[in-house]
Amino acid sequence: MGQITDGPVPKYRQLAEILRARIEAGELAPGDPIPSETALEAEFDLARGTIRKAIAALREEGVIVTTRGKGSYVAGA
Amino acid sequence: MGQITDGPVPKYRQLAEILRARIEAGELAPGDPIPSETALEAEFDLARGTIRKAIAALREEGVIVTTRGKGSYVAGA
DNA sequence: CTGTATTTGTTCGTATGTATT
DNA sequence: AAATACATACGAACAAATACA
After folding, report:
1. Distance from C-alpha of B77 to C-alpha of B75, rounded to nearest angstrom
2. Separation in Å: C2 C1' and B10 CA
3. Tens digits of residue pLDDT in A26-65
4. What is the C-alpha to C-alpha distance for residues A56 and A10, in angstroms, rounded to an integer?
5. Is there a contact between B65 and B56 (Cβ–Cβ < 8 Å)?
6. CA B33, CA B75: separation in Å to the nearest integer?
7. Range with the lowest mean pLDDT among A2-11, A12-21, B4-13, B42-51?
8. Contact at 8 Å (CB) between A12 and A54?
9. Phi/psi at B22 (nearest 5 deg)?
10. CB within 7 A of strand D (chain A, 1-60)
11. How many Cβ atoms are within 10 Å of A60's Cβ, its own excluded?
Protein backbone atom coordinates (compact mmCIF):
# COMPACT_ATOMS: atom_id res chain seq x y z
CA MET A 1 0.00 0.00 0.00
CA GLY A 2 1.90 3.04 1.13
CA GLN A 3 4.78 1.55 -0.77
CA ILE A 4 7.28 4.31 -0.13
CA THR A 5 10.58 2.71 0.78
CA ASP A 6 13.88 3.89 2.10
CA GLY A 7 16.58 3.62 -0.50
CA PRO A 8 18.42 5.42 -3.25
CA VAL A 9 15.28 6.86 -4.83
CA PRO A 10 14.07 9.95 -2.94
CA LYS A 11 10.68 9.60 -1.32
CA TYR A 12 9.28 12.62 -3.14
CA ARG A 13 10.13 11.00 -6.47
CA GLN A 14 8.53 7.74 -5.44
CA LEU A 15 5.36 9.54 -4.47
CA ALA A 16 5.27 11.51 -7.71
CA GLU A 17 5.47 8.25 -9.61
CA ILE A 18 2.69 6.69 -7.59
CA LEU A 19 0.40 9.63 -8.22
CA ARG A 20 1.26 9.74 -11.88
CA ALA A 21 0.49 6.04 -12.14
CA ARG A 22 -2.92 6.59 -10.57
CA ILE A 23 -3.67 9.27 -13.11
CA GLU A 24 -2.44 7.29 -16.07
CA ALA A 25 -4.43 4.29 -14.89
CA GLY A 26 -7.54 6.41 -14.94
CA GLU A 27 -8.08 6.11 -11.20
CA LEU A 28 -7.94 9.88 -11.21
CA ALA A 29 -9.61 11.41 -14.23
CA PRO A 30 -9.10 14.92 -15.64
CA GLY A 31 -10.75 17.41 -13.33
CA ASP A 32 -10.68 15.06 -10.38
CA PRO A 33 -9.18 16.36 -7.15
CA ILE A 34 -5.88 14.98 -5.91
CA PRO A 35 -6.06 14.05 -2.22
CA SER A 36 -5.16 16.99 -0.02
CA GLU A 37 -1.66 17.36 1.36
CA THR A 38 -2.97 16.36 4.77
CA ALA A 39 -4.62 13.24 3.33
CA LEU A 40 -1.45 12.25 1.50
CA GLU A 41 0.56 12.80 4.67
CA ALA A 42 -1.66 10.31 6.43
CA GLU A 43 -1.79 7.82 3.58
CA PHE A 44 1.94 7.67 2.98
CA ASP A 45 3.25 8.76 6.36
CA LEU A 46 5.40 11.48 4.87
CA ALA A 47 6.17 15.03 5.93
CA ARG A 48 4.26 17.79 4.27
CA GLY A 49 7.35 19.16 2.61
CA THR A 50 7.96 15.84 0.93
CA ILE A 51 4.36 15.71 -0.29
CA ARG A 52 4.62 19.21 -1.66
CA LYS A 53 7.82 18.40 -3.52
CA ALA A 54 6.16 15.49 -5.27
CA ILE A 55 3.13 17.58 -6.21
CA ALA A 56 5.36 20.40 -7.43
CA ALA A 57 7.08 17.97 -9.78
CA LEU A 58 3.78 16.84 -11.29
CA ARG A 59 2.64 20.43 -11.58
CA GLU A 60 5.77 21.34 -13.50
CA GLU A 61 5.08 18.45 -15.83
CA GLY A 62 1.62 19.84 -16.44
CA VAL A 63 -0.03 16.75 -15.02
CA ILE A 64 -1.92 18.60 -12.32
CA VAL A 65 -3.09 22.10 -11.56
CA THR A 66 -3.10 23.58 -8.06
CA THR A 67 -5.17 26.40 -6.61
CA ARG A 68 -4.45 27.89 -3.23
CA GLY A 69 -7.18 27.31 -0.71
CA LYS A 70 -8.79 24.71 -2.96
CA GLY A 71 -6.47 21.91 -3.88
CA SER A 72 -4.81 20.13 -6.79
CA TYR A 73 -6.69 18.66 -9.71
CA VAL A 74 -5.83 16.40 -12.60
CA ALA A 75 -5.13 18.59 -15.61
CA GLY A 76 -7.05 18.35 -18.84
CA ALA A 77 -10.56 18.74 -17.52
CA MET B 1 28.14 41.01 -8.92
CA GLY B 2 28.62 39.77 -5.42
CA GLN B 3 29.57 36.43 -6.78
CA ILE B 4 30.48 33.43 -4.73
CA THR B 5 33.62 31.80 -5.99
CA ASP B 6 35.30 28.50 -5.40
CA GLY B 7 38.48 28.94 -3.47
CA PRO B 8 40.09 29.03 -0.07
CA VAL B 9 37.37 31.17 1.52
CA PRO B 10 34.31 29.09 2.48
CA LYS B 11 31.18 30.01 0.57
CA TYR B 12 29.22 30.69 3.74
CA ARG B 13 31.79 33.27 4.79
CA GLN B 14 31.69 34.91 1.40
CA LEU B 15 27.92 35.14 1.60
CA ALA B 16 27.99 36.55 5.11
CA GLU B 17 30.32 39.28 3.91
CA ILE B 18 28.10 40.10 0.95
CA LEU B 19 25.05 40.43 3.18
CA ARG B 20 26.91 42.47 5.74
CA ALA B 21 28.09 44.79 2.98
CA ARG B 22 24.52 45.29 1.81
CA ILE B 23 23.49 46.23 5.30
CA GLU B 24 26.40 48.56 5.91
CA ALA B 25 25.78 50.21 2.56
CA GLY B 26 22.25 50.95 3.67
CA GLU B 27 20.73 48.75 0.96
CA LEU B 28 19.07 46.97 3.82
CA ALA B 29 17.96 49.28 6.60
CA PRO B 30 17.18 48.39 10.22
CA GLY B 31 13.88 46.52 10.32
CA ASP B 32 14.09 45.50 6.69
CA PRO B 33 13.69 41.84 5.89
CA ILE B 34 16.66 39.86 4.63
CA PRO B 35 15.81 37.80 1.55
CA SER B 36 14.43 34.41 2.55
CA GLU B 37 16.66 31.35 2.61
CA THR B 38 14.89 30.12 -0.51
CA ALA B 39 15.46 33.42 -2.29
CA LEU B 40 19.13 33.41 -1.33
CA GLU B 41 19.43 29.83 -2.55
CA ALA B 42 18.21 30.96 -5.94
CA GLU B 43 20.23 34.16 -6.03
CA PHE B 44 23.55 32.59 -5.12
CA ASP B 45 22.96 29.02 -6.20
CA LEU B 46 23.93 27.62 -2.80
CA ALA B 47 22.53 24.85 -0.65
CA ARG B 48 20.21 25.85 2.14
CA GLY B 49 22.63 24.69 4.79
CA THR B 50 25.26 27.02 3.43
CA ILE B 51 22.83 29.92 3.43
CA ARG B 52 21.87 29.18 7.01
CA LYS B 53 25.48 29.10 8.13
CA ALA B 54 26.04 32.56 6.72
CA ILE B 55 22.90 33.90 8.36
CA ALA B 56 23.79 32.26 11.66
CA ALA B 57 27.11 34.10 11.64
CA LEU B 58 25.41 37.47 11.15
CA ARG B 59 22.89 36.62 13.83
CA GLU B 60 25.66 35.84 16.29
CA GLU B 61 27.20 39.19 15.47
CA GLY B 62 23.91 40.84 16.32
CA VAL B 63 23.55 42.18 12.81
CA ILE B 64 20.25 40.46 12.13
CA VAL B 65 17.37 38.93 14.07
CA THR B 66 15.54 35.83 12.96
CA THR B 67 11.99 34.72 13.72
CA ARG B 68 10.68 31.32 12.83
CA GLY B 69 7.91 31.31 10.26
CA LYS B 70 8.60 34.95 9.46
CA GLY B 71 12.14 35.58 8.39
CA SER B 72 15.33 37.46 9.24
CA TYR B 73 15.46 41.21 9.68
CA VAL B 74 18.18 43.79 9.98
CA ALA B 75 18.68 44.52 13.66
CA GLY B 76 18.24 47.92 15.20
CA ALA B 77 14.74 48.70 14.01
C1' DC C 1 -23.08 37.96 6.96
C1' DT C 2 -19.89 36.04 10.28
C1' DG C 3 -17.09 33.31 11.95
C1' DT C 4 -14.53 28.69 11.68
C1' DA C 5 -12.34 25.08 9.29
C1' DT C 6 -9.81 23.47 5.48
C1' DT C 7 -6.17 23.91 2.12
C1' DT C 8 -2.28 25.58 -0.13
C1' DG C 9 1.82 28.92 0.29
C1' DT C 10 5.98 30.46 2.70
C1' DT C 11 9.27 30.70 6.28
C1' DC C 12 12.69 29.10 9.70
C1' DG C 13 14.53 24.93 12.89
C1' DT C 14 16.75 20.49 12.96
C1' DA C 15 18.82 16.10 11.66
C1' DT C 16 21.02 12.65 8.63
C1' DG C 17 23.74 10.89 4.86
C1' DT C 18 27.08 11.52 1.11
C1' DA C 19 30.87 13.49 -1.28
C1' DT C 20 34.69 16.44 -1.56
C1' DT C 21 38.56 18.89 0.04
C1' DA D 1 40.62 13.60 10.62
C1' DA D 2 38.02 17.74 10.04
C1' DA D 3 35.56 21.29 7.66
C1' DT D 4 32.82 22.41 3.80
C1' DA D 5 28.88 21.71 0.83
C1' DC D 6 24.92 19.42 -1.15
C1' DA D 7 20.48 16.75 -0.99
C1' DT D 8 16.96 14.79 1.50
C1' DA D 9 13.53 14.64 5.12
C1' DC D 10 10.86 15.77 9.20
C1' DG D 11 8.89 19.50 12.22
C1' DA D 12 6.83 23.90 13.40
C1' DA D 13 5.02 28.53 12.90
C1' DC D 14 2.96 31.95 10.20
C1' DA D 15 0.10 33.54 6.24
C1' DA D 16 -3.60 33.86 2.76
C1' DA D 17 -7.27 31.94 -0.15
C1' DT D 18 -11.20 29.20 -0.24
C1' DA D 19 -15.17 26.53 1.58
C1' DC D 20 -18.63 25.88 4.78
C1' DA D 21 -21.78 25.86 8.76
Report:
1. 6
2. 55
3. 999 999 999 999 999 999 999 999 999 999 999 999 999 9
4. 14
5. no
6. 10
7. A2-11
8. yes
9. -65, -35
10. 10-13, 45-50, 53
11. 9
Residue type, A67: T
Residues lying close to strand C (Cβ under 7 A), chosen from 8-67 of chain B, are 34, 36-39, 48-49, 52, 55, 66-67
B23 touches strand D (CB under 7 A): no
Is residue B53 a contact partner of residue B12, using CB atoms and an 8 Å limit? yes
Residues in chain B: 77
CA A47 / C1′ D11 distance in Å = 8
Would you list the DSSP string of A3-65? ----SSS-HHHHHHHHHHHHHHTTSS-TTPBPPPHHHHHHHHT--HHHHHHHHHHHHHTTSEE
Distance of CA A3 to the CA centre of its chain: 14
